[in-house]
Design a protein that fits this description.
248 residues; 6 helices; 4-stranded mixed beta sheet; 10 strands; alpha+beta
């Protein structure tokens, strides 16, 4: 939407860009607070990193970071080496995409383990949906890495070394690798199933490490609306609610 446009440049806020963002969200005060929180976190992280550079020097700092990554990757590969070699499969179906309500969508994953190498291939998953449930490939890759780390090294501090291990493949413009203009607003539904099918596949190899399936997403019906009468309202079970209380 805002390709190649910066909210901040050289430490100065782009006021017109900020105004445009806040005029196009349902809760501008909350979004503004979130943005400021993210910006403050980035600034704090940059300051802390600069302090480390001044204290130890760039070369020493970069060498230490790379050593941490390499050690984490090596340990991760040893853990994968404990998984029996083989080809494992998992699949699941999304009931519908909110637009084509009579059509189910398949998410499938084939996990191949060979020694200390692992590949997760989503070939067989359905094409991108018309409804806004498609899950971007960058998120699919991140979820695969997250699942793998959780079942091998859950207590280790996460870093890039853990993420280098898994290779993820997906068909072009599928529900787990959509391309523009496929809608992705409510990708969380498919995200849950991406995790599920990878865990389901690994359950055939390391059942003692795999948790039972979850309830997936959302225990109640929710329809998003705009603000009314100065407060945010939503509809659930046929009634309008505000701040957790039903309205007459």
């Amino acid at each position: 939407m805002f390709n190649h446009l910066k909210l901040y440049e050289a430490g100065r806020v782009n006021k017109e860009m900020l105004r445009l963002i806040l005029r196009n969200v349902r809760t501008p005060e909350a979004v503004n607070g979130d943005l400021n929180g993210l910006i403050a976190s980035c600034n704090t992280g940059a300051m802390r990193f600069q302090e480390l550079c001044r204290r130890f020097g760039m070369e020493t700092l970069h060498a230490a970071i790379e050593e941490i990554f390499e050690n984490s990757e090596a340990r991760m590969r040893r853990e994968i080496g404990e998984i029996p070699d083989g080809i494992y499969f998992g699949e699941a179906y999304l009931d519908h995409d909110g637009v084509e309500r009579d059509k189910r969508h398949r998410i499938a994953a084939t996990v191949t383990v060979r020694g200390s190498h692992i590949e997760i291939d989503f070939d067989g998953s359905d094409p991108a949906a018309r409804g806004p449930v498609n899950h971007p490939l960058v998120g699919t890759r991140a979820l695969c890495a997250t699942v793998l780390k959780c079942v091998t090294m859950p207590d280790d501090a996460t870093n890039d070394g853990h993420l280098r291990v898994v290779k993820v493949k997906a068909p072009k413009n599928s529900i787990v690798s959509p391309e523009y203009p496929a809608p992705c607003d409510s990708y969380g539904y498919v995200a849950e199933l991406v995790e599920y099918v990878v865990l389901k596949a690994l359950a055939s190899a390391i059942p003692h490490r795999i948790p039972a399936p979850s309830y997936q997403m959302y225990a109640y019906h929710l329809v998003r609306t705009g603000e009314r009468a100065g407060a945010f309202h939503w509809r659930r079970a046929g009634r309008w609610w505000r701040w957790g209380f039903p309205l007459r």
